[in-house]
Amino acid sequence: xxxxxxxxxxxxxxxxxxxxxxxxxxxxxxxxxxxxxxxxxxxxxxxxxxxxxxxxxxxxxxxxxxxxxxxxxxxxxxxxxxxxxxxxxxxxxxxxxxxxxxxxxxxxxxxxxxxxxxxxxxxxxxxxxxxxxxxxxxxxxxxxxxxxxxxxxxxxxxxxxxxxxxxxxxxxxxxxxxxxxxxxxxxxxxxxxxxxxxxxxxxxxxxxxxxxxxxxxxxxxxxxxxxxxxxxxxxxxxxxxxxxxxxxxxxxxxxxxxxxxxxxxxxxxxxxxxxxxxxxxxxxxxxxxxxxxxxxxxxxxxxxxxxxxxxxxxxxxxxxxxxxxxxxxxxxxxxxxxxxxxxxxxxxxxxxxxxxxxxxxxxxxxxxxxxxxxxxxxxxxxxxxxxxxxxxxxxxxxxxxxxxxxxxxxxxxxxxxxxxxxxxxxxxxxxxxxxxxxxxxxxxxxxxxxxxxxxxxxxxxxxxxxxxxxxxxxxxxxxxxxxxxxxxxxxxxxxxxxxxxxxxxxxxxxxxxxxxxxxxxxxxxxxxxxxxxxxxxxxxxxx
Length: 543
Description:
Layout: H1 6-30, E1 79-81, H2 94-106, E2 110-114, E3 117-121, E4 124-125, E5 130-134, E6 138-142, E7 153-157, E8 160-164, E9 167-172, E10 175-181, E11 184-186, H3 192-195, E12 230-235, E13 238-243, E14 246-248, E15 261-266, E16 269-272, E17 281-284, E18 287-292, E19 295-298, E20 303-306, H4 310-316, E21 320-326, E22 329-339, E23 347-358, E24 360-367, E25 375-387, E26 393-396, H5 401-404, E27 422-443, E28 450-482, E29 487-504, E30 511-515, E31 520-525, E32 539-540
């Protein structure tokens, strides 16, 4: 090779390499977050998570507590199309759809196909070994008339057992059931369902805990009030699989497994922002649950974990446990991930990781009330990106008088009883908060403080720092807070440690307001600034 050809060759190789690298970087920037990425500490962006990034296979679950192996269900090859069983597009087709489901189940299982087109229906009930599949272009349009959801069926309304309208897609004591496809589920429009909705305050003021469940019947005869039907709600079921469908314009909670074991919810899109009570996904008193690659835009909380309510929930005493939420996206709602406020049977072993939560009012929310019982334990959040107008982390264990009367008053301290809830052993690690109001807004209960909270490796931009009451054993470590605020308020907080925390504000200083007879042992270790301006040293000890 001659010397004058070498520079041209090298230049050509450099250009080709540069083009290849640029293309590779572009591809990396837009690809879905892979399960292997979660071990590297990378925090996802919105274009890497959600329903649009759903892979075909279910990757192994790696959780800090034992979880089962999740696999897609297998159904017999037999299938029936509802149009071939008499369903018509110009009329209510509830009977035809239900008859098709029943036939497929009786023949050993298979798939019920909802073909493209708009199909009007009332409540339908899934049966064992049936996959209800909505083809692309299919719409299940649910009736707005109460009569299309009768007779009453066993269900829960906000954590209390009732006989009610149940859900638009319902199942009870079934196994190996599925709702799949690229079709849409459309909630009820204007009609008696909306007009007869129960009013009169919280559910425990309507349904007596002393009344037998069989007598708690609310099915709307003669214009009587009803509890709103949920969208998809299996109860007492095993091996539930929900994938791919889009849910629009519902009136109440959308996907609600209750008392179920073995649930997979993946690739779901919810667009229900017009009504204020439309939670996205509510896992209630269920176990061994995987929620992944879902995109939620709804009128209330997005990803919600519940465990029964008050005395009725304590009677049932079924925990919500072993739940993984990963690679999910929120676009609009109230709480991004909310535990409670129904906590009677306990919420434990929750692992939320590699998610992006935008547009919700609050980020991580922990709710309960003095008479709710139970609480939350071993709740873990890792590699989360938040952009919310409200608080990044909010604990509200007291609620308001509108819900629990004088029990919402912080004082006097009440005796601990079976209905005293707890929140303990909560970890949040590797979190990026692009925008928030408070970093931490904590309202515990004096007789049951928030206990063992660890927040580590957080980068946050927020309006305000910390406002906290009734908490103990709290560690905030390796965290940078960008804010204009300088005030940390602590009421009856003890054993609180700031370790390698940088508070970046224009004044380059922090002040504290510490009060309460239980306040003690608050320390700053290798922080910037080294200590609050109004402290003589880097620790605050009870006098």
